[in-house]
Write a structure and sequence with these properties.
Layout: H1 16-25, H2 35-48, E1 52-58, E2 62-69, E3 75-77, H3 83-86, E4 93-95, H4 108-111, E5 118-125, E6 131-139, H5 147-186, E7 190-197, E8 200-206, H6 210-214, H7 218-223, H8 234-250, E9 254-262, E10 265-278, E11 281-290, H9 298-314, E12 318-323, E13 328-331, H10 333-339, E14 355-358, H11 372-377, E15 382-391, E16 397-407, E17 413-422, H12 424-446, E18 450-454, E19 460-463, H13 466-471, H14 483-486, H15 489-504, E20 510-518, E21 524-535, E22 541-550, H16 552-588, H17 596-627, E23 634-638, H18 639-657, E24 660-665, E25 669-674, H19 675-691, E26 698-706, E27 709-715, H20 739-743, H21 750-760, E28 764-770, E29 774-782, E30 785-786
Parallel strand pairs: 24-26
Antiparallel strand pairs: 1-2, 1-6, 2-3, 4-5, 5-6, 7-8, 7-11, 9-10, 10-11, 12-13, 12-17, 14-15, 15-16, 16-17, 18-19, 18-22, 20-21, 21-22, 23-25, 25-30, 26-27, 27-29, 28-29
Length: 787
């Protein structure tokens, strides 16, 4: 390891103030978890094969995780954030080994939990070029990403930025919708949408002010818009009907004032509405105003008309109209914002200084005769015409335009009107979805590890090239296969059970299983299988994605190691027995009195040979378990007597180490076990407790009843177990890399053998431990008899 220096946080970017402003605009910090982000994080973690993957966003004081796989935290201080260095880079920031990186070696996240050794972070850059945070993968051991994994991180980071921008667009739309709703509810009149289609007239929308305006329930008008006609005089009824028909035929603005009698009281209503073709029917968007008090004056009508113009200006749709000469007469506020200027006051040759118009691809210039308003002016009715408005210095805006000619009742052309709806979010979403599918398919198909998409019953839907290569099938043969045919029946049953458990809960994102598989030629192979859920856009499960790594060679080497150890152990057993017996005789003086120094050396040799013989016996026991030749002699043992016996057996060792025993047995109980084998397990537990406990501490032996079981525990006050090592405690020949193991000898077989012996006697084994606070190892056996 290189000599480390004092840790210094990453410097701030030169554009930090602008970057924080950009991050605030996304309104993403401290929001709940979202399946779309978690799915991309899990994909990054799976493809890079790391235990940890994060979407990290950096504000002024902290790094906050929008998505976090593998860590149980939501944020950390910014001064310790690796992502602070990553956002300064123009590309992937990859640290293969933090211990070999001087400026990170003393980072608190390196020397403390989660003990980062490897880090790779891809900056999340907004459309304006600001690095908001990173998509990063983390491991607790050194590693190097391959080119495919680096490319995948780059692709996924781009997808995350697109999700952030889509989310921002959706929030902006919701805010605008709220503003429009508030506006319509406060207008001094009733806004409405009237639709006529196939002989039916109905009101899809009436603003909240309608009841207070007319004293009529909205439901009454919605179900029967003709209700108002029954409250009018015959002349006014005919006037309104004629106005509707004329507006429908010519698509001209309807303006009419009628008298309505409600509960004996006369009201005057001014109705103004703009028609629009809608499929085979017509829609009117208008306002109904109570002008009873101002009926005799034209001022009130003009005021309402001005209000209508303001409403048009606040509408979310862009509205543009022109006269018969092509001169713009209507250009509402939304259209002004989209184009960058009110072009009614500008000559046409200056319009290009503010905006450009393109076809739907956003690249091909829109010819004059293709502009929807011009097409309508030429007599064409336009529906859903896609186009792009490119205001100078602003992102492209995709719109869908409807346009119609305006003619008088006698057919004279009066001009044209176009209504444009912003569909940018929808178009961007569709493009992002296509890009996401393309990127996923590319990463999936080129992955060097066998990967497949399956339904929830294990039938293969799609697989990459590495999948049939692993099993030896032709490129198309696998399409008729299911995992049930590829896996050993016992392992398939486990995989199905774990799949059902994965679908039934939400916290675990994947499961892992090492199982046995069958190739096309019948050969057996071992594989490390990982399975995760691919969700729908709403978060519901859609299918499984399965990844399989061939571990056959590792198993073959493990079998060779086991055979070698077994062979060596058998060869050593007989000579060790003789050596041990001979040294015992020498130590006991059977062959004569030895000098005092010789006696000391013989005793040391005798103790060492006894330990070596015990180790050989343990190795042979492990070989018997593996081969299925281990036998047990069961008998009923009293728990309290059993614990006291362990104290006596290990008292000398404890006294030498300065350790005190404490025994606790709440109730007298019997368990049915093999006395010799349970002594072996206790010997392992107690020997470890003594060796790893400080002088003067206490080791507790506890027997307690738990729901029909007896739990036998050995509790120490020692150094505890590192979190990184807990998953390997009961594995064979595995030892911690910590300094404790170097101070205390061991082969890494005692706890593995204890697990096999405990389970062979029908029990269960487990432990709990906190670093620096000691450990508790325990066995659970069914209660045989209770007094």
């Amino acid at each position: 390891m290189n000599e480390s220096t004092d840790y210094k946080p990453a410097p701030l970017p030169a554009d930090e103030a602008q970057r924080l402003e950009e991050l605030e605009l996304f309104k993403i910090l401290d929001t709940p978890a979202e399946a779309d982000f978690d799915g991309l994080t899990e994909l990054a973690r799976a493809i890079c094969d790391t235990p940890i993957a994060l979407i990290s966003l950096l504000d002024e004081k902290r790094q906050w995780f929008k998505s976090c796989i593998g860590l149980d935290v939501t944020e950390t201080p910014r001064e310790v954030a690796f992502c602070g260095f990553a956002i300064l880079q123009g590309a992937l920031y990859e640290i293969n080994d933090t211990h070999e990186t001087p400026h990170l070696a003393n980072n608190p996240l390196v020397i403390g939990p989660p003990f980062i050794r490897f880090y790779a972070g891809m900056p999340l850059k907004s459309a304006n070029g600001f690095a908001l945070g990173t998509l990063c993968v983390i491991d607790t051991k050194p590693r190097v990403l391959n080119d495919i994994q680096r490319h995948t991180l780059e692709v996924l980071a781009g997808q995350i930025v697109q999700l952030l921008e889509l989310r921002q667009s959706r929030n902006n739309y919701q805010r605008l919708a709220g503003r429009f709703s508030n506006l319509t509810n406060r207008v001094p009149g009733a806004l409405f949408e009237l639709e006529y289609n196939v002989g039916r007239l109905w009101l899809p929308f009436i603003s909240a002010s309608m009841p207070s305006l007319s004293g009529i329930a909205k439901s009454t008008l919605r179900d029967d818009p003709g209700y108002l006609l029954t409250k009018m005089s015959r002349s006014d009824r005919h006037l309104l009907v004629r106005s509707l028909i004329a507006s429908c035929r010519a698509l001209t603005l309807m303006q009419v004032c009628v008298q309505v009698t409600l509960e004996g009281e006369a009201f005057w209503f001014y109705i103004e509405a703009m028609p629009e073709r809608f499929g085979s029917g017509v829609k009117w968007y208008g306002i109904l105003s109570d002008v009873t008090g101002q009926r005799q004056g034209h001022v009130a009508v003009e005021a309402e008309r001005a209000m209508y113009q303001r409403i048009m200006g606040a509408a979310s749709a862009g509205v543009v109209a022109c006269n018969a000469q092509g001169e713009l007469t209507v250009f509402n506020e939304t259209a002004l914002q989209w184009h960058g200027a009110d072009i009614r006051s500008l000559p046409p040759e200056q319009w290009s200084e503010y905006y450009d118009l393109f076809e739907a691809d956003g690249q091909t210039p829109l010819a004059l005769e293709r502009i929807p308003l011009i097409r309508a002016l030429n007599g064409e009715s336009v529906r859903g015409a896609p186009m792009v408005i490119a205001r100078k210095g602003y992102p492209l805006r995709h719109v869908s335009a409807n346009a119609d000619p305006i003619v008088s009742m006698d057919g004279t052309p009066l001009g044209a009107v176009a209504i444009m709806h912003d569909v940018t979010a929808r178009v961007v979403s569709e493009h992002a979805l296509k890009a996401s599918r393309k990127q996923f398919n590319q990463a999936f198909s080129t992955a060097p590890i066998a990967m497949a998409l399956t339904d929830f019953d294990g039938h293969i839907i799609e697989a990459n090239a590495a999948f049939p290569a692993l099993f030896g099938y032709h490129s198309e043969t696998w399409r008729t296969r299911a995992f049930k045919e590829l896996m050993h029946p016992d392992d398939w049953a486990k995989a199905k059970a774990m799949g059902r458990e994965l679908l039934a809960q939400t916290k675990t994102m994947f499961y892992q299983l090492e199982g046995r598989f069958r190739g096309a030629d019948g050969r057996g192979l071992w594989g490390d299988m990982r399975c995760a859920i691919i969700p729908e856009s709403d978060g519901t499960p859609r299918q499984f994605i399965v990844q399989i790594m061939d571990t056959s060679e590792r198993h073959r080497l493990a079998e060779l190691k086991s055979e070698f150890i077994s062979s060596v152990s058998h060869e050593l057993r007989t000579p060790l027995t003789s050596i041990n017996a001979s040294l015992g005789m020498l130590s006991a003086g059977v062959l004569g009195v030895l000098p005092e120094k010789a006696i000391e050396m013989v005793k040391v040799a005798h103790d060492s040979s006894f330990k070596l013989q015990s180790l050989v016996e343990s190795l042979l026991d492990m070989e018997r378990i593996t081969s299925g030749h281990m036998t047990f002699e069961f008998e009923e043992l009293d728990v309290e007597t059993l614990l006291e016996r362990q104290v006596e057996r290990h008292r000398e060792l404890a006294d030498k180490a300065g350790i005190t025993f404490r025994v606790s047995c709440a109730r007298r109980a019997l368990i049915r076990v093999d006395a010799k084998r349970i002594d072996q397990v206790f010997a392992c537990f107690i020997d470890n407790a003594i060796r790893f406990s400080p002088t003067g501490s206490v080791v507790e032996l506890v027997g307690e009843r738990l729901d029909g079981d007896v739990r036998l525990s050995v509790i120490d006050q020692g150094v505890g177990i590192d979190n990184e090592f807990k998953a390997y405690v009961f594995q064979r020949f595995v030892q911690s890399d910590g300094s404790t193991t170097r101070r205390h000898n061991g082969l890494g077989i005692g706890l593995a053998l204890s697990k096999e012996l405990t389970e062979g006697m029908g029990g269960r084994i487990g432990f709990s431990s906190s670093k620096g606070e000691g450990s508790c190892f325990y066995m659970l056996f069914p209660l045989s008899t209770l007094d």
